[in-house]
Amino acid sequence: MTDLYAAQRAMRNMRNAALQRGVVAILDVGTSKIACLVLRFDGERFAGGDGVGALAGQSAFRVIGAATTRSRGVRFGEIDAMGETERAIRTAVQAAQKMAQTRVDHVIACFSGGTPRSYGLAGQVDLEGEAVSEQDVARVLAASDVPDYGAHREVIHAQPVNFALDHRSGLADPRGQIGNSLACDMHMLTVDAATIQNLLYCIKRCDLEVAGIASSAYMAGISALVEDEQELGAACVDLGGGASDVSIFMKKHMIFADSVRMGGDQVTADIAMGLQIPNATAERIKTFYGGVVATGMDDREMIEIGGDSGDWERDRRTVSRAELIGIIRPRVEEILEGVRDCLDAAGFEYLPSQQIVLTGGASQIPGLDGLAPKILGQQVRIGRPLRVQGLPQAATGAAFASAVGLCLFAANPQDEWWDFEIPADRYPARSLKRAVRWFKDNW
User: Fold this and answer.
1) What are phi and psi of 320, to 5 degrees?
2) What are phi and psi of 365, to 5 degrees?
3) DSSP 8-state secondary structure symbol assigned to residue 302
4) Contact (Cβ atoms closer than 8 angstroms) between residue 238 and residue 214
5) CA distance 35 to 402
6) pLDDT by 10s per residue, the chain, length 443
7) 177 with 60: CB under 8 angstroms?
């Protein structure tokens, strides 16, 4: 725990160093594509955000380079073949650097997969002085009782979501306020340690320094949900190639994240298997003719499959669009049912707002906005990422939600556990505290 805390703090320092240099790269390592954006920070800072959610104001930035390449060696959002992924990352970063006409040393990366798990923590301390200081916030975070999340998992996000000072709850930032007792609710997200280590090692092999790492579910929510949705409560579903990430926001903070190990690639695989065609052809047919709602016209609309097997009859096969939809729809329904199970497990139905926003590359399947409300609930919309200054037109689609969210996160990260000077004696004392409690209960 202490090691990861030190590693995360080192990454934060690297991010600050990169911001002073003025250039940092954003890397979205996905199953179907690897996107790289180069950001230039012009040094202006303007106060933005309220509470511990926002660090010391936002940095104004501009996208000066962008590139995408087909992802290789990544399955279900996790690295499968190190060499292939390294080559793909190098290709994307070099193309973005060429467009930006500058060299980049630091990258902030995001990934899906890694079987994320969410935990809610609570801590309480008595205040030593009158007003709440930075040290008091650090002490209440350190007092949060961390669950035993397993040896092979690591904390990727640990954010204070809500503060309570004496009887007043719902405070965004208690610093400077007067009271006797400070309590805090935290959201902690853990992922499989091997997934993070593989990604960090892969980026290091590309001669790049990692200045930050984040979950795709969180990044997609930041960019696809509008401010009111983040405040009142909403779920963001990032339908990617290999995994579909689910995140729930409330009071502008992420309070839950999960992942379904299915996405657009499984739809492509179904088409390839059903029509006995190569994956590349199946992807093209899905993109041009795919859908989930069949009409009477679709029986008559014939799609030429084509091929280069050399068998003239086989290469001239046609299939109706209705048949294609018959292959696509069951898999899309299965993905949405998996998403619904995640939301049910999180207790989403108890939130005051029931808004669900679908984003990601697979959300562009025609007819999804009609099918999704039948499975997920009535308030469903298709979300596109926020507009960012300098972003090329090609990178404004729903497939780039995570990458755009990562730009916003790089410029204005939310305060996390490691942004405070946690008292050294409090940090590793978890096991001791647990042992003392066990001793009391069992003696």
Assistant:
1) -80, 155
2) -65, 125
3) E
4) no
5) 10
6) 445 567 777 887 788 888 888 899 999 998 888 999 999 987 654 444 444 444 333 567 889 999 999 988 888 878 888 889 999 999 999 999 999 999 998 999 998 888 889 999 899 988 877 788 888 888 888 888 888 888 888 888 888 898 998 888 888 888 888 888 999 998 999 998 888 889 999 999 898 988 889 999 999 999 999 989 998 899 999 998 888 999 999 988 999 999 999 999 999 999 999 988 888 889 999 999 988 988 888 888 888 887 666 666 666 788 899 999 999 999 999 999 999 999 999 989 888 888 999 999 889 899 999 999 999 988 899 988 888 888 888 888 889 999 999 999 888 887 776 677 776 545 444 444 444 344 344 44
7) no
Alpha carbon distance 139, 426 (integer Å)? 8
DSSP letter, residue 130: S
* 200: its two tokens: 């960090």
The partner residues of 70 in beta bridges, in order of sequence, read 33
Instruction: Specify the length of the chain in residues.
Output: 443
DSSP, res 428:
T
Burial 109-132 (b: 16+ CB within 10 A, else e): bbbbbbbbbbbebebebebeeeeb
Q: Three-class SS of residue 124? A: strand
Name the fold adopted by 117-191.
Dna Ligase; domain 1 (3.30.1490)
- Residue 32 three-state SS: coil
Reading the block at residue 81, the tokens are 């073949």
- Residue 37 has φ and ψ, to the nearest 5°, of -120, 135
The CA radius of gyration of the chain, in Å to the nearest whole number, is: 23
Write down the residue that tokens 């109706």 correspond to. Answer: 320
348 touches 354 (CB < 8 A)? yes
As a whole number of angstroms, the distance between CA 187 and CA 335 comes to: 26
Q: Where exactly are the structural domains of the chain?
A: 117-191
